[in-house]
Amino acid sequence: MQIYLPIAEVSVNAFLLLGLGGIVGILSGMFGVGGGFLMTPLLFFIGIPPAVAVATEANQIVASSFSGVLAHFRRRTVDLKMGLVLLIGGLIGAAIGVQVFAMLREIGQVDLLVKLCYVVFLGIIGGLMFLESLRAIRRSKNPAARPERKKHGLVHALPFKMKFRTSGLYISVIPPIVVGLLVGILAAIMGVGGGFVMVPAMIYILGMPTKVVVGTSLFQIIFVTAFTTLLHATTNYTVDMALAVLLLIGGVVGAQIGTRIGVKLKAEQLRILLSLLVLAVCAKLALDLLIQPTELFSLGVGGH
């Protein structure tokens, strides 16, 4: 069943969009990521213009993350205090990112910027997560050789410390705010929730327990992506509501399924699966940038 998307100005199969939304929702529930790092490239591949894909995907992430975080609230695995500190940085970052996005759109460089950002960030983060996950799995198989938990020296040395009882931490608020700031910028420019950056940062930089990381990440993602969508809609006019609604329906259903799957897997297994997924998307986007396009004239500048 074909449906016309007025802002994107293309016709797409409605069931395909529902299916894509469902897949992203499952990822959201399992890993605590918005899923935009996968959905945005998929929307490129089915012909959605990059500017519309980025802005509309931020809207879809709101619903899938909200659905996922409800399940985590029931299990009391959300650190609200940490989530609010991350949110302060996230909102500031989103405002900066939308302005950068608008400037690049005016000079016609949005498509290239988005793809390059994906390749760089996904490659680095996916590789680091994969290596760390392998080490964690080896340690779990040999508990006697498991090293003591390292102290996060820089995090503990900084001022403005605050207690985060749910996470069992007493650290400076500066690192969470900086993490939130970076995630907010990524949300605006790349159309992602930023979970693929936030989840490893919360585990390895802030030292949060894995059991509260996913729910806390989703809590922050909801508000940052909602704010990003509002800014894109009012600044760049690139939010396609018809596209968003279909992705939302699939995302909400998928998030509930993903949360149930995630509970049955060990933390190390979840991290290694997410790292492999991140590396696969990175490889696909890198190939697209390197392989010669079929329409060479599309690379030219108007008037030349």
TrEMBL record:
This entry carries the following GO cellular component terms, namely: plasma membrane
**Localisation per UniProt entry:** Cell membrane; Membrane
Q: Which UniProt keywords apply?
A: Cell membrane, Membrane, Transmembrane, Transmembrane helix
Any stretches that span the bilayer, and where are they?
12-38, 44-71, 83-104, 110-131, 169-192, 212-231, 243-263
The UniProt entry lists membrane topology as: Multi-pass membrane protein
Q: Which family does it belong to?
A: Belongs to the 4-toluene sulfonate uptake permease (TSUP) (TC 2.A.102) family.
Q: What is this protein called?
A: Probable membrane transporter protein
Source species: Litoreibacter arenae DSM 19593
